[in-house]
Amino acid sequence: MTTSAVKRGARLSAIGTYAPSKVLANDDLAKLVDTTDEWIVRRTGIRERRIAADDEYTSDLCTAAARDLFARSGTSPGDVDLVIVGTTTPDYPFPSVASMVQDRLGMRHAGAIDIQATCAGFAYGLHIANGLVSAGVHDRVLVAAGETLSKVTDYTDRATCILFGDGAGAALVEAATPGSIRASIVGSSGDGGPHLYRTGLSRRIASAAGAAGAELPPGLIRQNGREVYRWAVETVSAGVSRLMQDAGLTGDDIDWFIPHSANIRITEAVCERTGIPVSRTLSSIECYGNTSAATIPLALAPAIAANKIRRGDTLILYGFGGGLVHAGLLLDW
Predict the structure, then answer these.
(1) Is the dihedral of CA 317, 58, 28, 68 positive or negative?
(2) Tally of domains within the chain
(3) pLDDT per residue over 55-84, tens digit each?
(4) Domain contains 2
(5) pLDDT tens string 311-325
(6) Measured between alpha carbons, how far apart are the two ends of the chain, in Å?
(7) Which residue range is the domain that position 281 belongs to?
(8) Cα 143 from Cα 126, distance rounded (Å)
(9) Residue 87: pLDDT band with limits 50, 70, 90
(10) 3-state SS, residue 115
(11) Which of 22, 157, 220, 255 could form a disulfide with 313 if both were Cys (CB 3.0 to 4.6 A apart)?
(12) Active site members
């Protein structure tokens, strides 16, 4: 009798987070634009968000989240051989945020790279790390995701300023035999780019309505909420269903669903289509708002710390956002 060798894989072994101390509540926004706390909560689920200090940037948030991870896990930064950072608000076009995190934490032998997958940045980072670790190219990869969206938000635009906040998360992906990251999926709908974009620093994008973006100040976020909602519900529902189908699972088999916290209504619609009970979802939107790439770790970490997520639980993480891009993973904790 012969036995097949168990293949090397990867596991998500530790997580850390950081959020700035300044709080921007809905009532504060009501002083800036025509809105109310009741309207924002009903439409989005957001009650408050965190705002970075004037001298606090994405690299600072990601470094703090990584330090939180190492303090919680007992792992040394010197054990990491690659740093991946997902962000759409880097400190500079270059050097990369990953290089800055690598330097501040003394990871002298680690490579460093940023990825730009907007709100799917954390899930894309895990997807890449899983492939590299499972292939034996790297043994331990730090995946961080951080945003300082308050620095690129137009606080005169009622449609977007109520949504965004600042924060960061970090996860350690390391070799395991067998691995616990069971499946992943990535995709893009590039034709939907004009529905969610940041006005160009070197090029202005034409909005779905035409060239309306041409006269906008550079660097600010614009969104066609209705179209993004429609795309997200359809795309994430299909992606989650495919992950479950390929693994032979149903919604009842998923212990926790952690989607990007964009809007509580999107999460509810995806759950209705996929059969995952809303009671088994985790979100960071109520206290942090939409922190883009950081929403998933900000939802995941408190549940792990509270022992809400237990060893062996089956999770689906799913990010989606500007690009339009999306990425999901099915894993066992």
Answers:
(1) positive
(2) 2
(3) 999 999 999 999 999 998 888 999 999 999
(4) no
(5) 999 999 999 887 788
(6) 32
(7) 182-332
(8) 7
(9) very high
(10) strand
(11) 255
(12) 119, 260, 290
